[in-house]
Design goal:
Length: 202
């Protein structure tokens, strides 16, 4: 069956004034939807059509099929991004994820600083991720449609640092956007649930 644009996990205006409904309208309703539409057209009638999104990404990367890879990866990346945000706000890591962050980064503050440096320092368009690497936590940055899946890493949360993710709200002030994500919007509860599922499956 063709892939469908997933619904946002909150109302379109739920993140205002930090992230506007206009941004979500364009970013989710046009950019994300566009990747889904293009992907479905590209894979129709091919072996990809029977695969899951992660499997398409990995196989397209192996085959150097940049068109399928870019659209599949962007579909995956955006879905995780929407699920890395919460209208609840001002969360902090808890439980086993908090313990792993302290183990691998020293403290939550040190994690946030490393994440901030990675996100503001990434040249051009791309993504910044908190990933699990066989249970150890890492921050990685990927350019354009890059995704940790091709390196066998498990993403826990991600921040979209393409300009279209923030330009309507803060213009070219990526630093403000990153700080808003870390201080106000990041869904640590969801990231913690992903980490727990990985631990139990290990």
């Amino acid at each position: 069956m063709p892939f469908e644009l997933p619904e946002l996990p909150y109302a379109k205006d739920a993140l205002e004034p930090l992230m506007s409904s206009k941004t979500l309208e364009y970013h989710h309703g046009r950019h994300h939807a566009g990747y889904i539409k293009k992907l479905n057209k590209l894979i129709e009638g091919t072996a990809f059509a029977k695969m899951t999104l992660p499997d398409i990404i990995v196989r397209a990367d192996e085959l150097k099929d940049s068109s399928v890879f870019n659209n599949a990866a962007q579909a995956f990346n955006h879905e995780l991004f929407w699920n890395s945000l919460t209208p609840s706000g001002k969360q902090k890591p808890e439980g086993s994820l908090a313990s792993a962050i302290r183990r691998d980064f020293g403290s939550v503050d040190e994690f946030e600083e490393e994440f901030r440096v990675s996100a503001t320092g990434l040249f051009g368009s791309g993504w910044v991720w908190l990933v699990s690497d066989d249970g150890r936590l890492r921050i990685i940055a990927t350019g354009n449609a890059g995704t940790p899946l091709v390196n066998g890493l498990e993403p826990l949360l991600t921040l979209d640092v393409w300009e279209h993710a923030y330009y309507l709200d803060v213009q070219n002030d990526r630093g403000k956007y990153v700080d808003t994500f870390l201080n106000e919007l990041v869904d640590w509860s969801a990231a913690g649930e992903r980490f727990e599922r990985l631990r139990k499956a290990a």
